[in-house]
């Protein structure tokens, strides 16, 4: 029994594969089983969720996916809905079964689609909240490579 | 630049490493004036912290001058003298906005590691391994400060480097303990550990109106400091039964707020890789004692940083006595400006905690003194500017 999958199922029914827009669900909250969203390897349809402390309209301006998710293009499904208690927006994504993720993500995060989706969600969150994606220090080895 | 790096179990050495670079628009680069050792470095030094690796630059309590700012930095300019909160926070997420900056969602570029360990990503801390962000530490000539507008604070001219340094970590940790412990006028507060963090907890409790503050430790010199500078009473477990003594001094009630400022007990045994990664548990003797001593309905604050699990936590006492147990990395971003004001007014003096000052090159010696609590060492303060050899 999918938590988000059940909520999202109908909303997604009409969305074509590869559509570059997310649907904002309003007021369609349902009690979720324990465990919370975003648990890695969760079997409930593979949805992963982050809460973005911004209004849905800011997270998906004009219905457009934020850049980190757009990069994964038609390989993922995306959902948003308001978070309870004025906590902004719950932004969810999952890989579409059978559609390989674009190469860039695999290069960055290995070939685990769940990790790629999670990383993209986090980046989208950070962009919306802070305006950029926090970058790690480069190791001396990386710096040598870049010259 | 020169930096003090971890090079193996109980080994550090100054190495030549690349200068830090601006990686984000909100970054600043700070030239370090002073950088202090901390009890939190000891598990790392001993190689007991998962993911610590050779070449990691240590240090997270520091003060220095801004030498470069990213295009998004608004509150600082080149030349500003700043003290930097040891934990990295974005200032804009739900946690930061809600007064929990050390729970920031965006302070760690490698959140997966903490997520696997703790269930949620935990924010970065300077000079710690990947699980806590992997940001290079401050025992170096320069350090990169992410979210500089949020984590770096201009130091008033009237506050000396020697005093302001402690606004980076030890003072906000102590203040936070008294704050989240809910210390109120009339309270009796007990603090386990008379290191810099415990002493500044005792001072914060006093400033918040505690009636009596009692510090527990077996280090004479540190206990004398706590009496002199934090106006605290002391108990030395070598000469007293701590729980019995606390009961007696509190009319049988027990302290209202008990703060553990000790950290994991270190038995000197080097743990195997398997133990480190499968979670052979730490022992938290001071936490246990605090839980037993605390009055019914009181609050126990755990400041000590435990990497994973602990053994034999007295959960029964928590429920039977209706205790609140709180823990956190310090929320420096909430407290530093207020602490600097108190430092400027002379209410909060910290410079006595810097018992030893030396150049980076003597870092290994400085850490040995600090770890073994020899020669009255409470904090070793390293300065890249001091001449390397006498
Ligand atoms: N939560 C935070 O934000 C934060 C910030 C800084 C430090 N810390 C942690 O606080 C702890 C203390 O830091 P510090 O720099 O003062 O360390 P420190 O090593 O200088 O001092 C620890 C003191 O505890 C004493 N001690 C050891 N066992 C004891 C026991 N059973 N009962 C009473 N005292 C005992 C030691 O003698 C020592 O004086 C460390 O675990 C550190 O990681 C937490
Ligand atoms: Zn510290
Ligand atoms: Zn934040």
Automatic annotation (TrEMBL), chain B:
The domain of life for this entry's organism is Bacteria
Give the range the annotation lists for the signal sequence: none
List the keywords (alphabetical). Metal-binding, Zinc
* Keyword match Metal-binding: yes
The Alcohol dehydrogenase-like C-terminal domain is annotated at 196-265
Start and end of every Alcohol dehydrogenase-like N-terminal domain? 26-150
Q: Which SUPFAM superfamilies match?
A: GroES-like, NAD(P)-binding Rossmann-fold domains
Q: Per the entry, which co-factors are needed?
A: Zn(2+)
Q: Which Gene3D superfamilies match?
A: Medium-chain alcohol dehydrogenases, catalytic domain, NAD(P)-binding Rossmann-like Domain
Any idea what this protein is called?
A: Glutathione-dependent formaldehyde dehydrogenase
- Species of origin reads Micromonospora thermarum
């Amino acid at each position: 029994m999918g938590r988000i999958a059940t909520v999202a199922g109908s909303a997604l029914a009409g969305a074509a594969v590869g559509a570059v827009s997310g649907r904002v669900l309003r007021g369609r909250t349902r009690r979720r089983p324990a465990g919370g969203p975003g648990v890695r390897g969760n079997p409930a349809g593979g949805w992963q969720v982050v809460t973005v402390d911004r209004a849905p309209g800011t997270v998906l301006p004009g219905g457009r996916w934020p850049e980190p998710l757009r990069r994964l293009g038609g390989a993922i499904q995306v959902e948003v809905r308001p978070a309870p208690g004025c906590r902004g927006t719950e932004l969810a994504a999952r890989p579409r079964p059978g559609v390989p993720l674009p190469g860039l993500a695999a290069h960055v995060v290995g070939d685990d689609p769940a990790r790629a989706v999670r990383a993209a969600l986090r980046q989208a969150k950070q962009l919306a909240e802070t305006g950029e994606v926090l970058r790690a220090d480069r190791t001396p080895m990386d710096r040598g490579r870049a010259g | 630049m020169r930096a003090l790096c971890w090079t193996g179990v109980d080994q550090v050495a100054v190495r030549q490493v690349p200068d830090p670079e601006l990686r984000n628009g909100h970054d600043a680069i700070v030239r370090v004036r002073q950088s202090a050792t901390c009890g939190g470095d000891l598990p790392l030094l001993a190689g007991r912290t998962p993911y610590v690796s050779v070449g990691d630059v240590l240090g997270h309590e520091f003060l220095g001058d801004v030498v470069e700012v990213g295009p998004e930095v608004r509150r600082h300019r080149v030349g500003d003298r700043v003290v930097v909160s040891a934990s990295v926070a974005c200032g804009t997420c739900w946690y930061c906005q809600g007064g929990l900056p050390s729970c920031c969602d965006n302070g760690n570029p490698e959140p997966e590691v903490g997520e696997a360990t703790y269930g949620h990503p935990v924010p970065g801390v300077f000079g710690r391994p990947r699980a806590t962000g992997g940001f290079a530490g401050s025992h170096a000539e320069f350090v990169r400060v992410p979210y500089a507008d949020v984590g770096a604070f201009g130091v008033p001219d009237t506050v000396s480097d020697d005093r302001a340094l402690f606004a980076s970590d030890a003072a906000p940790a102590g203040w936070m303990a008294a704050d989240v412990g809910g210390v109120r006028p009339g309270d009796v507060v007990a603090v386990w550990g008379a290191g810099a963090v415990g002493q500044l907890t005792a001072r914060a409790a006093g400033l918040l109106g505690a009636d009596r503050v009692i510090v527990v430790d077996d280090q004479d010199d540190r206990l004398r400091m706590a009496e002199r500078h934090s106006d605290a009473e002391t108990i030395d477990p070598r000469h007293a039964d701590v729980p019995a003594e606390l009961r007696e001094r509190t009319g049988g009630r027990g302290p209202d707020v008990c703060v553990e400022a000790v950290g994991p007990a270190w038995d000197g045994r080097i743990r195997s890789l398997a133990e480190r990664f499968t979670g052979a548990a730490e022992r938290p003797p001071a936490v246990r004692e605090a839980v037993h001593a605390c009055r019914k309905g009181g609050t126990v604050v755990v400041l000590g940083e435990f990497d994973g699990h602990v053994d034999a936590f007295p959960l029964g006492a928590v429920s039977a006595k209706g205790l609140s147990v709180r823990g956190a990395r310090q929320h420096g971003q909430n407290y530093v400006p207020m602490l600097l004001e108190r430092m400027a007014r002379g209410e909060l003096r910290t410079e006595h905690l810097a018992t030893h000052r030396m150049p980076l090159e003597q870092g290994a010696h400085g850490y040995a003194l600090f770890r073994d609590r020899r020669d009255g060492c409470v904090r070793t303060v390293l300065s890249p500017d001091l001449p390397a050899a006498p």
